[in-house]
Amino acid sequence: MTLLAVKELSKTYRQGSPVISNITFDLNKGECLALVGESGSGKSTLARCLLRIEQIDRGKISLNGSALEQLSERQLKPFRKNIQAVFQNPAASLNPKLKIKDALLDPYEQYKSELNLAHFSYPSKEASVNQLLEAVELPTSLADRYPHELSGGQRQRVTIARAISIEPELIILDEPTASLDVISQDAVLRLLTDLRKNLNLSYLFISHDLAAVNQVSQRIMVMKDGQIVDQFEQEHLLAEDRHAYTKELVSTF
Predict the structure, then answer these.
(1) In what order do the strands lie in the sheet with 18-28?
(2) Cβ-contact 142, 98 below 8 angstroms
(3) Tens-digit pLDDT profile for residues 208-243
(4) Which of 11, 67, 69, 130 has the fewest CB neighbours in a 10 Å radius?
(5) 3-class DSSP state for residue 63?
(6) Domain named ABC transporter: which ranges (predicted)?
(7) How many CA atoms lie within 13 A of 45 on its CB side?
């Protein structure tokens, strides 16, 4: 069943060439759909447009059949609880003045009157924080620490815990492992796969790393110069009919 439907999405900055042009795809419930391409191909701009951080020039964005592209910020609020994001730099995503426990509970405090949670309960602040830390395989002793006291891998797990805390239907993962060492990367990718299955999440996984994409996704889209040039099931990555640019990417990993 389709969760996110995007049709002919385009975005141009000032009077330049389009950053993204005529982007069309569907993302199914429970699926990890990957978007891969080199730096500067338009992947992060697409993410910001889908999150409505950026205004689009034209096109349609539909979540569960509801059109989002023309909604005001006030009208968007009921939908924002269903779309969360995890970005490349966890240090920039966490308020350095907030303890981890307060950062984790912030989304819940924003949306608690609108939530109908199936997996997490919030009986008390401490119990809730412990649930979230355990869900991302972090010790509960980290709750009273500040972001700068954690490693990069731990900070990224905290941002993931914060994203899942309100059980969104879709998480946009924009280069979530790019700033991590190889061991932390692998651990985070395995964690994301487990969370998707256990919490019935859907992911748009954006990366320049085809090896990471191949590890976590069911379907893959390839972006070049702001356009989707190839779409296929993950098991068809090495098929002969892949686009020439896809074959070029494959040859480098």
Answers:
(1) 18-28, 2-12, 58-63, 66-67
(2) no
(3) 888 899 999 999 999 999 999 999 999 999 899 999
(4) 67
(5) strand
(6) 4-250
(7) 23
